Each structure stands twice: as structure tokens, then as C-alpha cells.
């Protein structure tokens, strides 16, 4: 597909490889027939100018005129060569004028000005000897030259307009292709971010319980049963979330062109169930929520930030107490802080790709906010995010 895309400018502008076979569409055949008929018509209009000419000149005019009209069918493959030959022949012959006009138009359409301009100039130069060799009794030398220049400029301007229109169409197609590729890229990034946010939390919970069982094989049967049940629930929720995300990907857009509905998204109200789930996994998490009824988009971003920060805390500081603070309101924005001690003895270390905090930073920036993370002077690891909360925004607006 990429190879044909690079050939698109050559096809539209006619600047492709002349050795490549010309494949005419139905429209191309219609245009070529019209151009052939136009060349023949212009050649027939010059028949009265042959009166009084010697018989050999008349025969040469008719033969060369017919051949030049037939050569119009080669204008797509060799437009420059056709224009040069017809321009040279038009120094004396009149019936070549139709094919010369078609060739000039073709060069103006299919070649840049650095090529078509000199060919137009060559055509003007041929008018000088033609005006003296084949003068017209009524128009005179100057009249023939003026009419020739006017016809050449008209044909050339027409070709330039057609070329400019084709360039515009090609440019619009390129922009549309680029916009489509950018939309696909953004959608892939959104899906990847959603998959990471949904599954990283569940899998880290599952790994935490499994690690506890691994390092405490002598635990009471009741604790082992509780941990196994938590593992089963985490795996079940992970599969359920994965089905929802894949279901959104498989959802086909309705005929009316409405957007594909997104999977159910969490809000600020879902922070409490998230903390309870962490408590069941054995984490010590303290939540301080001081925010009103935030918009759904803002609440979703805050939830994802807290969820990923808790996942990182489980990975790198398992067993450490975590403090989650969410505060703010319309106009001032919403500030989210997740804090946990740095040096904590870990039972097991959950592997990670290191893309979680990068994804959180990108999410905050896309929402118009900012995110900072790193060690504090108190020996804690802090994730702080600020997201804007416009005054006029409400849940009904979302």
C-alpha cells in the first residue's frame, strides 16, 4: 500500500517513469479521444491555407498533419518529445498546429513550469519564421504572430489551471491520509493506555497474593483459602475487564456514523471500592477525599492516576502504608497525591516495564494538567498530579 501511495503524485501529475506502461481509465480514454478529435479539427481548419500551395507541399502537409494527429495518442507517455517535434515542424507546416496545441496543453498539465515554460517559449520562437514563410494576406506578419501568441498563452494557461487543480486534489488526499494515520495512532495509544490501566492493577493484585503464598507455605489453612479466593477474584475481574476492552474494539460503528461507545469508565465515586479492594489484598491505604461532584472525564483521570500509583506502590514498596489525598474544586483544579515510604522490605518484586509513570504524565498533560513524581526529603515516594476543573463544567455537561 505504501508503494502505491508514493506513486500517487506521479499518476496525478504525470511526472512518472516514461518507461512504465500507461494504463488508461475510462475517463482517460474519453479525454484522449476528445484531444485526438480536437487536434484533427484544428488541422482541418487549416485546409483553406493550403490553396495555392505547390502539390508536393500539400501532400507533405496532409501526411505530416495526419501523422501528428495520430501521435497525439502518445502524449501521455512522451509529452515533452511530442511537443518538441510538433513545435519544430510548425515552423513551416500549418496542419501540425492542432497536434502542437494538444502537446503544449499536455506538457503544461503533466510537467512543472521549468519544463513547460521553455517549451512554450520555443513555440513562440517558431512563430517568427512561420510568419514570414507562410504569411497571411489579410492579417500580415504581425497579425499571424499575435494570434499565435494568443492561442499559445490560452492553451498554456488552461493546462496550468488543470495542473494546479490536480496538485490541490493530491494535497488534500495527502492531508486526509496523514489525518487518518494520526487518528489511528492516537486510537492505538488510547487502547494501549486503557489496556495497561485496566490490567496492571488486577495482575499486580494477583501477583501480590501469589507471592504471599509462595513465601508463606506454612500459613494457616484459613489464610491460604482467603488468599486463593482473592487470586481467583482478581483473575476473574481481570478477564472481565479484558472482555470489556476487547468488546469495545470489536464493536462496529452504526450505519448513521455515530461514535463507538466506550466501555464503562470509573469516576471519583469508585475510589472507595478501589481502596477497599487494596485493603482486602493486605495493603494499608488511607484515603482523604475532599472534592465535590467532579466531571466524569476529570474523575476518570484521577481514578486512573490513583490506580496506577497504588499498582506501583505494590510493585516497589509492598507492605508499606500508602496515603492517598484528593482535594480541589471548580476553578482551583483537582490535586491528587499518593505517598508511600521508599525503603520497605519486600517479600517479592513484581516486574514492570517502567511505562506506568510515563503514561500517567501523558494522561495528565492530555487533560491540560501536570504530574510530578519522585523521592521527598522525608524519605517517601510521592506522585502528585494537578488537573484543571473549569468553573462552568458540571457532570451534566459531560
UniProtKB/TrEMBL annotation:
It holds the Pfam family HisKA_3. InterPro entries: HATPase_C_sf (IPR036890), Sensor_HK_TwoCompSys (IPR050482), Sig_transdc_His_kin_sub3_dim/P (IPR011712). One of its GO terms (molecular function) is kinase activity. Signal peptide: none annotated. The chain crosses the membrane at residues 29-48, 54-74, 81-109, 115-133, 140-161. Keywords: ATP-binding, Kinase, Membrane, Nucleotide-binding, Phosphoprotein, Transferase, Transmembrane, Transmembrane helix, Two-component regulatory system. It catalyses: ATP + protein L-histidine = ADP + protein N-phospho-L-histidine. Residues 187-252 form the Signal transduction histidine kinase subgroup 3 dimerisation and phosphoacceptor domain. Gene3D superfamilies: 1.20.5.1930, Histidine kinase-like ATPase, C-terminal domain. Its EC number is 2.7.13.3. This is histidine kinase. It comes from Nonomuraea guangzhouensis.
Amino acid at each position: 500500500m505504501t508503494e502505491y501511495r508514493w506513486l500517487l503524485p506521479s499518476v496525478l501529475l504525470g511526472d512518472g517513469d516514461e518507461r512504465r506502461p500507461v494504463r488508461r481509465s475510462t475517463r482517460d480514454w474519453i479525454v484522449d479521444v476528445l484531444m485526438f478529435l480536437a487536434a484533427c479539427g484544428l488541422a482541418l481548419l487549416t485546409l483553406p491555407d493550403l490553396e495555392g500551395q505547390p502539390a508536393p507541399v500539400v501532400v507533405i502537409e496532409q501526411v505530416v498533419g495526419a501523422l501528428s494527429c495520430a501521435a497525439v495518442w502518445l502524449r501521455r507517455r512522451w509529452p515533452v518529445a511530442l511537443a518538441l517535434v510538433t513545435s519544430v515542424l510548425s515552423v513551416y507546416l500549418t496542419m501540425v498546429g492542432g497536434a502542437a496545441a494538444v502537446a503544449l496543453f499536455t506538457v503544461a498539465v503533466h510537467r512543472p513550469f521549468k519544463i513547460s515554460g521553455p517549451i512554450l517559449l520555443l513555440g513562440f520562437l517558431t512563430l517568427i519564421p512561420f510568419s514570414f514563410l507562410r504569411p497571411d494576406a489579410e492579417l500580415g506578419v504581425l497579425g499571424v504572430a499575435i494570434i499565435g501568441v494568443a492561442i499559445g498563452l490560452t492553451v498554456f494557461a488552461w493546462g496550468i489551471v488543470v495542473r494546479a487543480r490536480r496538485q490541490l486534489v493530491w494535497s488534500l488526499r495527502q492531508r486526509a491520509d496523514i489525518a487518518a494515520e494520526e487518528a489511528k495512532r492516537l486510537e492505538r495509544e488510547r487502547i494501549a493506555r486503557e489496556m495497561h490501566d485496566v490490567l496492571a492493577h488486577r495482575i499486580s493484585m494477583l501477583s501480590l497474593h501469589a507471592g504471599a503464598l509462595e513465601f508463606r507455605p506454612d500459613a494457616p489453612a484459613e489464610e491460604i483459602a482467603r488468599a486463593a479466593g482473592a487470586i481467583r477474584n482478581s483473575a476473574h475481574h481481570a478477564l472481565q475487564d479484558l472482555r470489556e476492552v476487547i468488546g469495545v474494539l470489536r464493536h462496529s460503528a452504526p450505519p448513521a456514523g455515530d461514535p463507538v461507545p466506550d466501555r464503562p469508565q470509573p469516576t471519583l465515586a469508585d475510589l472507595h471500592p478501589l481502596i477497599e479492594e487494596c485493603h482486602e489484598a493486605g495493603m494499608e491505604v488511607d484515603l482523604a477525599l475532599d472534592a465535590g461532584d467532579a466531571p466524569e472525564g476529570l474523575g476518570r483521570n484521577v481514578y486512573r492516576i490513583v490506580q496506577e500509583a497504588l499498582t506501583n506502590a505494590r510493585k516497589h514498596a509492598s507492605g508499606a502504608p500508602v496515603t492517598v489525598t484528593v482535594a480541589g474544586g471548580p476553578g482551583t483544579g483537582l490535586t491528587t497525591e499518593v505517598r508511600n515510604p521508599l525503603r520497605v522490605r519486600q517479600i517479592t518484586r513484581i516486574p514492570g516495564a517502567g511505562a506506568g509513570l510515563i503514561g500517567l504524565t501523558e494522561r495528565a498533560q492530555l487533560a491540560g494538567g501536570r504530574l510530578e513524581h519522585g523521592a521527598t526529603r522525608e524519605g517517601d515516594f510521592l506522585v502528585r498530579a494537578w488537573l484543571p476543573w473549569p468553573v462552568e463544567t458540571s457532570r451534566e455537561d459531560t
